[in-house]
């Protein structure tokens, strides 16, 4: 798996940044946390090229660094998961387009291309693009509101920063600052269009994409779709409401949501001319994904073998551990056929022998 993953990462890095950056990134993936001179020595690249490559990878948050023991030398490491996320960039952009419109789509697209922007520079850039591509120019004030909406919805977050003057900067940020909207002066933006010198109020505040927020939306869509397919549209819509209310009182990636009072659901359902009974409701997110995953596996067994093999698989899943002679009795399958199917499932790694 590591060898295949390494090939995928190399292809992504080479396509996006070129062969030199790819060589540095591949080395970090293969050898882990490494100081600058080790990278230079083993990649046989000029020191200037190694530094430039690391700067690019750090800029796009694909490489992180920590001080060495003497705190004057940095050790660098590649974040393979973030490299893979680059394949999802089109999905992120499409999600924002559907949810917030074309202007917000451009904001996200620009940040993904450059990795980070100040709010003022970003708004000016998007305004410039819109002015070229459309007859009716979108006002700067409207773009500012679009940007603030993305921050408020947590699709954009502030980058950490260093307050000290250490050889290896220690980048940190307070949680309260992550979504704190900066002072964006519209007059400054208007004046900047006719001037090459910019001194924006938010010049030292940089914003980047919050991938985690996008993944929450993707997860919620998977859950709603799964409930709709398994039950009906009403079940899907009900789960969608629960997920919306969940974020008010529960951490987004909690296994189980806190109870949602029925009164809140009733208020929402009244707007949709539906009714709800009493009580409160919780979503078992982890359990929901687990059960749907089991159903997919069972369907794979059914399609790959037959209904009798699927019956054996469900039986073992239910019992967790079961003797071979019990399978034929409980699954009501002839002994010879039960042994054959059990062996096939074992060979294909759908079942395992705990004694081996």
From TrEMBL:
According to the UniProt entry, its GO molecular function terms are: single-stranded DNA binding
The family database entries (InterPro entries) matched by this protein are listed as: POLR3C_WHD (IPR055207), RNA_pol_III_RPC82-rel_HTH (IPR013197), RNA_pol_III_Rpc82_C (IPR008806), RPC3 (IPR039748), WH-like_DNA-bd_sf (IPR036388)
- Record keywords, A-Z: DNA-directed RNA polymerase, Nucleus, Transcription
- Chain ranges of the RNA polymerase III subunit RPC82-related helix-turn-helix domain: 9-67
* Location(s) in or outside the cell: Nucleus
A matching Pfam family: RNA_pol_Rpc82
This protein's source sits in the domain of life called: Eukaryota
Please indicate if the UniProt record lists Signal as a keyword: no
Task: Tell me the ranges covered by the DNA-directed RNA polymerase III subunit RPC3 winged-helix domain, including all copies.
Answer: 297-352
Query: Which GO terms of the cellular component aspect does the record hold?
Result: RNA polymerase III complex
Gene Ontology biological process: DNA-templated transcription
Domain spans labelled RNA polymerase III Rpc82 C -terminal: 127-272
Summarize the subunit comment. Component of the RNA polymerase III (Pol III) complex consisting of 17 subunits.
Q: What family is it from?
A: Belongs to the eukaryotic RPC3/POLR3C RNA polymerase subunit family.
**What is the documented function of this protein?**
DNA-dependent RNA polymerase catalyzes the transcription of DNA into RNA using the four ribonucleoside triphosphates as substrates. Specific core component of RNA polymerase III which synthesizes small RNAs, such as 5S rRNA and tRNAs.
Q: What is this protein called?
A: DNA-directed RNA polymerase III subunit RPC3
The organism is: Rhamnusium bicolor
């Amino acid at each position: 798996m590591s060898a295949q993953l390494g090939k995928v990462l190399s292809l992504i890095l080479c396509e996006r940044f070129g062969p030199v950056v790819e060589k540095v990134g591949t080395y970090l993936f293969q050898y882990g946390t490494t100081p600058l001179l080790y990278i230079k020595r083993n990649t046989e690249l000029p020191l200037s090229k190694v530094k430039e490559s690391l700067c690019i990878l750090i800029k796009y948050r694909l490489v992180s660094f920590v001080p060495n023991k003497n705190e004057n030398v940095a050790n660098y490491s590649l974040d393979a998961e973030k490299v893979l996320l680059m394949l999802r960039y089109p999905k992120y952009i499409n999600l924002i387009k559907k949810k917030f419109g074309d202007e917000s789509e451009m904001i996200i697209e620009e940040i993904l291309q450059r990795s980070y922007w100040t709010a003022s520079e970003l708004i000016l850039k998007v305004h410039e693009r819109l002015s070229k591509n459309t007859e009716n120019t979108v006002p700067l004030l409207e773009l500012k509101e679009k940007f603030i909406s993305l921050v408020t919805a947590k699709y954009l977050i502030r980058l950490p920063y260093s307050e000290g003057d250490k050889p290896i900067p220690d980048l940190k940020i307070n949680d309260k600052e992550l979504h704190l909207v900066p002072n964006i002066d519209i007059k400054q933006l208007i004046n900047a269009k006719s001037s090459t010198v910019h001194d924006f109020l938010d010049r030292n505040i940089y914003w980047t994409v919050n991938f985690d927020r996008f993944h929450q939306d993707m997860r919620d869509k998977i859950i709603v779709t799964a409930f709709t397919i398994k039950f009906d549209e009403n079940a899907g819509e009900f789960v969608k409401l629960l997920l919306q209310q969940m974020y008010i009182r529960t951490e987004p990636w909690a296994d189980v949501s806190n109870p949602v009072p029925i009164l809140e659901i009733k208020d929402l359902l009244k707007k949709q001319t539906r009714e709800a009974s009493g009580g409160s409701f919780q979503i078992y997110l982890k359990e929901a994904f687990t059960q749907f995953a089991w159903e997919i596996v069972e369907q794979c067994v059914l399609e790959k073998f037959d209904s009798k093999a699927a019956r054996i698989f469900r039986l073992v899943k239910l019992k967790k551990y079961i003797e071979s002679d019990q399978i034929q009795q409980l699954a009501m399958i002839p002994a010879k056929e039960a042994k054959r199917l059990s062996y096939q499932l074992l060979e294909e790694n759908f079942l395992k022998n705990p004694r081996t």
